Amino acid sequence: MKVTTQMVKELREATGAGVLEAKKALEAVEGNFDKAVDILREKGAARAAKRSDREATEGVIEVYEHPGNRLGVILELNCETDFVARNEEFKALAHNLALQIAAMNPQYIRVEDVPTAEIEHESEVLRKQALAEGKPPAIADKIVSGRIGKYYQEVCLLEQPYVRDDSLTIQDIITETIRKTGENIIVRRFSRFELGESL
Q: How many angstroms separate the CA atoms of 40 and 188, rounded?
């Protein structure tokens, strides 16, 4: 299948890729749009990994207040330059992350932030539940492993399914923005406040 200028344009609009990059991806998969998107997303993830060790000290403080003034979020999202910090796509990412935090109430940013003692306690509770359900010990251990993954999705922001598209995780949408901006992006910290919650 011949790759047309219109096909390249549509792929660029969907992914933010450069002209040559989009054309090569389409040629590699004989014009299949969805496969070309997958190729570009995989390349974006590889580039994002290369950028992860670069220092990110610019950025924004995003403040989200839920209608009714009963819930609020403060988020610090960092990037490498002031230029990207002022970019509309970066600001939209910060806003969407604040909405995610308001809706899903994560406790930590990443898996590594969860205290070991908390994971051990959760694993022990899950193992006892599996054994109480009559599962053999070897199967119970496999069940615990799977359920701990679900636990991470509940408590870790980067592991959570994105509230606007649950086929993506929060890490996926950050990686996509890293690919588009060409800069490292880091969720530095956040706080979520809900009226009347225990102090």
A: 27
pTM of the predicted model, to two decimals?
A: 0.69
Is residue 14 domain-resident?
Answer: yes
Written as six digits, the tokens of 95 are 């806003």
Residue 2 CA, distance from chain mean position: 35
pLDDT digit string, tens, across residues 101-151: 999 999 999 999 999 999 899 888 888 888 888 888 788 888 888 888 889
The reply to whether 199 falls in a domain is: no
CATH of the domain at 65: 3.30.479.20
SS3 state of residue 104: helix
Closest to 153 (Cα-Cα) out of 98, 94, 107: 107
Taking the C-alpha atoms of residue 33 and residue 11, their distance in angstroms, rounded to an integer, is 7
CATH number at residue 138: 1.10.286.20
| 102, 73 contact by CB (below 8 A) | yes
Can you spell out the DSSP letters for 143-198?
A: HHHHHHHHHHHHHBGGGSEETTEEEEEHHHHHHHHHHHH-S--EEEEEEEEETT--
Structural domain range at position 120: 115-154
